[in-house]
Design goal:
single chain; 362 residues; mainly alpha
């Protein structure tokens, strides 16, 4: 649980460094207070049991890979192209341009593929991460291919960001902190490839800025929202018209037609370094739903449940809680696990598949 606290705080610290202001600093201290229960529980418990992951069966592995490519076909079809067009450079560029028009000019997410199919791809990447030390290099790379092509076809940074987070969570789930950091250091070189992919995706969208500006857009996407959160908080410090879960759980609520949602959830944007941002981190969803102390209360409840199950030696349940909190921490720079249905289903698939696994001591 301490690792979850450190992830929350690392994001917030990067937000302060990216855009130093009283607003980003206010967000930093709010997040520190809200996530402090995880540090306290992590300091007072010593949970060294980890899930014993087995290799994914070949039929399931390749089945999910096929599902990923089916999703690419859906994206191509939504853009008026054929499946084979995704395998040519001109086809990729044409689909990406049409996807950009659909999302930004027609203001719809109809180009974004099927969220259920995307969830299965994310689950497989999580499992590959959990088997990092047991899986051949080629079998680690292949599940990322549909996801990276998804990013190129839609020009969305989000799918690749999710793939990285699910992969990291898988590594965390099956390794202690020291091993995780060693694995992370060995993967840093792949960050260059991810940045190049993002730059290519931006060029497909019609962006003609240089490499430095493209990297700036990536950092803006990850960290500008901590200033935005602070601005929103200080301008709404006495906000009391709580939504009671309508934002935190907007994904399933909109899926079942209970409420309607806009493509970006929040319509108001702020200018940061002359770039717009309408992302406000996971904390705005929870605060606007349950008040400014809502995150602290919710995190305290999760910490208490975690501690209770540890003391009862119900390690399978405590392990699931821990992985869920890691997911929440890694996603927190952008959203909660229940805002996007693909993310929600992907997380649920990971937790269900984890529950019945045996435990080992590391």
């Amino acid at each position: 649980m301490k690792l979850a606290f450190y992830i929350f705080m690392l994001y917030a610290l990067c937000g302060v460094i990216y855009y130093p202001s009283q607003y980003s600093l206010f967000s930093f201290f709010l997040i520190f207070f809200s996530t402090l229960p995880f540090l306290i529980v992590g300091t007072t418990t010593s949970d060294k049991l980890y899930k014993n992951y087995n290799n994914v069966k070949p039929i399931l592995y390749w089945g999910v890979i096929i599902i990923g490519f089916v999703n690419l076909g859906i994206i191509a079809n939504n853009s008026g192209a054929g499946f084979m067009d995704i395998f040519s450079f001109d086809g990729l560029k044409s689909i990406a341009l049409k996807s950009t028009i659909i999302r930004y000019e027609e203001d719809t997410s109809a180009n974004s593929g099927n969220p259920i199919l995307l969830a299965f791809t994310l689950w497989l990447i999580y499992r590959i991460g959990s088997l990092e030390k047991k899986t051949k290099w080629t079998l680690k790379v292949i599940p990322f291919i549909p996801l990276l092509m998804y990013t190129l076809l839609t020009t969305e940074k989000w799918p690749t960001f999710l793939g990285i987070l699910f992969y990291l969570t898988g590594i965390i789930a099956s390794n202690n902190s020291k091993t995780f950091l060693n694995i992370l250091r060995s993967k840093i070189k792949y960050g260059v490839l991810i940045i190049l992919l993002m730059i290519l995706s931006l060029s497909f969208r019609g962006y003609d800025g240089g490499v430095e500006e493209s990297i700036g857009i990536i950092f803006h996407y990850l960290f500008a929202q901590y200033n935005s959160l602070g601005v929103w908080l200080l301008n709404n410090i006495y906000y009391s018209d709580w939504f009671l879960g309508k934002l935190t759980f907007i994904g399933p609520l909109s899926f079942f037609g209970i409420i309607e949602r806009d493509a970006g959830v929040f319509s108001e944007s702020l200018m940061i370094y002359n770039k717009e941002s309408n992302i406000y981190t996971a904390f705005r969803y929870i605060i606007q739903d349950f008040s400014i102390i809502g995150p602290f209360i919710i995190n305290s409840l999760f910490s208490i449940f975690y501690l209770v199950f540890i003391n009862l030696k119900k390690f399978k349940i405590s392990g699931v809680i821990k992985i869920f909190i890691i997911f929440c921490a890694l996603l927190s720079t952008n959203t909660t696990p229940f805002v996007h249905n693909s993310v929600m289903l992907g997380v649920v698939l990971c937790l269900i598949s984890d529950y019945n696994l045996s435990l080992i001591h590391i």
